[in-house]
Amino acid sequence: MNDLAGKHFVLGLSGGIACYKAAELCRALIKEGATVQVVMTEAAEQFITPVTMQALSGRPVYGSQWDSREPNNMPHINLSREADAILVAPCSADFMAKLLHGRADELLSLMCLARPIDKVPLLLAPAMNREMWANPATQRNMMQIAADGAHILGVGSGFQACGETGDGRMLEPPELLEDIIAFFQPKRLAGKRVLVTAGPTFEAIDPVRGITNLSSGKMGFAIARAAREAGAEVTLVAGPVSLSTPRGVTRIDVKSAEDMLRATEPQAQSADVFVATAAVADWRPASASDHKIKKDGSGQTPQLAFTENPDILARVAQSQRAKSGALYCVGFAAESHDLVANAQAKRVRKAVPLLVGNIGPATFGADDNALLLVDEKGTREVPRASKLELARQLVAEIADRL
Ligand code: C5P
User: Fold this and answer.
1) Tens-place pLDDT, residues 328-337
2) 33: CA distance to ligand 1 center in Å?
3) What predicted TM-score, i.e. pTM, was given to this entire model?
4) Atom of ligand 1 nearest to the CA of 350
5) Is residue 228 classed exposed, middle or buried when 0-12, 13-18 and 19+ CB atoms within 10 A define those classes?
């Protein structure tokens, strides 16, 4: 994906050991289609050289407000006017204190102060020792800087270079990248709560065996990510999959359809949107054995009887909240043929306002897909694209209908 195509960043490095992560972040931004101009404070140059950052960004690094390469000798004006955002990563405790006071005694802080505040967002990735982070002065500074219009990307938690463990690590480059991409997405679902089910379910036969299906969960995870990018508060109820949780999304892991129902129904009571992408097993073994079913050498096979699983989507769509219009339900249909007819019939059967059809065997496990949107007015095809791109389009469609 080229989620940052056409975007130009000023990547500012202030002093901190996390400067080594800025090198990878710079590459990640460029891989995502952005151009990057690096600006470093004197302290940052103690941790990583401008040579590294120049090589990775493909542009000479700026470090001084007196840099005479600029014809007007005003790098603080010129560099900030070209940028779609200034990203300070790592942002040290000292640099936050400078921003708070509007200090401008070196190029990076000067540039942050001189940026057109309505046009050039300032994104900060703090990085510091846990005591420095927890210090009331830092917390106070951060609140005020945010109130002044900066966007704080948050910190990670864990083992720190100083040997202590706690909050204050700079987020990892992939986490920062996901948050930066999200920052630029339109906030179509701001203030909304979105609930998504995703992945297969696993129906136990005995303690070591079960019935499941080929759903990878990728579409549902992409929808959860896209909804969060659009500003929603997102809960993702996930069957057994090995996907990482999208940033900022609350995940509840479940196994069976019954677990999924138990996790989903209470969440649906306060959700504004429910998107059921999970490939819930239609049936489960009528009684799971407590012990592993053994071969006894006689050649006899075990007899399995099945019970129908609850239809989570249909149940939620029948709830008072959905019927009153407070909860907008979206179903998915994975079909192997006759997509239009099957999807239309399923929309009516499940009593949902929007049903999304796709061809199961062509999408299970893949990173791309093609969708058919079916609502009361008719159908619309959404052409093949990455699941994240499709998820963003679906989120826009849902937001239009709320
Ligand atoms: O009936 P079918 O399984 O094809 O319906 C698919 C839609 O219903 C999907 O949105 C799926 O998540 C949902 N579903 C469910 N609980 C089930 C079966 C399907 O929520 N037991």
Assistant:
1) 999 999 888 8
2) 37
3) 0.94
4) 8
5) buried
